[in-house]
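Exercise: predict the structure of this protein bound to adenosine-3'-5'-diphosphate.
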Amino acid sequence: LSSMKLPSRPELFDFEGVSMIHYFTDNWEKVKNFQARPDDILISTYAKAGTTWVSYILDLLYFGNDAPERQTSQPIYTRVPFLESCFKPYFLLSGTELADNLPTSPRLIKTHLPVQLVPKSFWEQNSRIVYVARNAKDNAVSYFHFDRMNMGEPEPGDWNTFLQTFIEGKRVFGSWFDHVNGWWEKKQTYSNLLYMFYEDLVEDTGHEVAHLCSFLGLSTSVEEREKITKGVQFDAMKQNKMTNYSTIPVMDFKISPFMRKGKVGDWKSHFTVAQNEQFDEVYKQKMKNATVKFRTEI
Ligand code: A3P
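Solution:
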């Protein structure tokens, strides 16, 4: 990781019908032709839905005991490569290179791509996929603060400006609505996909860890699961330099930390009554054919 200064914030553009920035399309040929393996586990989310949380849970489930130095010296974003990312020359390796160089198996790989842009080898290899979805309101708030502090993201503007662009699908990785619905539809025909909710993870982390184990065919002991459940709580991950992103220079934690609040319902301290009414109206329209149900409070 180089300490060079980033150029100005990237501009959004249309990429195959999805709003993107060049950091996630510069390496597209390699992404598109990426060779998945049958034992790969793809962690997929709309940005800010709990990617890091689930990445860390899976990393502990698979590698928590056999490689102590992995836990103390390797940040989660190198253990779990971000498939489409290409921040060269700031990061020396692209996501596909990091993934291809991973020494361990199974490989845990992260993506924010909408389902139609996922490299086809994942489907051909029947790789397992863990999708995490978060309710739109909290997801938007988290994304707003992330874009404020991350110079590798387009300018968010003020909260209202951000919210309007979020509604229009004009944020990186496109529309939240298309993303959660596209992946939900995929789940109906692709059986190696587990569709999880951030709200369930907050409500009962241990239950979701057990659910992950059964999906992945892991026979992790109750004691081990309890230890992991404790280690992945918000405060523990916020203190942990390997999971709190404090080692990344493009993020300004004085503006907002990566591990920000970790709550369900923080949207209530951001949405005005008018914004909430507008959002509910849009939501009703855009989700009218959707069968996936979200909780905005627990
Ligand atoms: P907030 O900004 O609402 O706090 P991602 O990893 O996909 O970028 O998602 C980041 C969001 O997940 C942030 O939400 C972050 O605080 C939250 N998060 C990460 N680890 C968490 C944990 N252990 N418990 C609860 N929330 C967590």
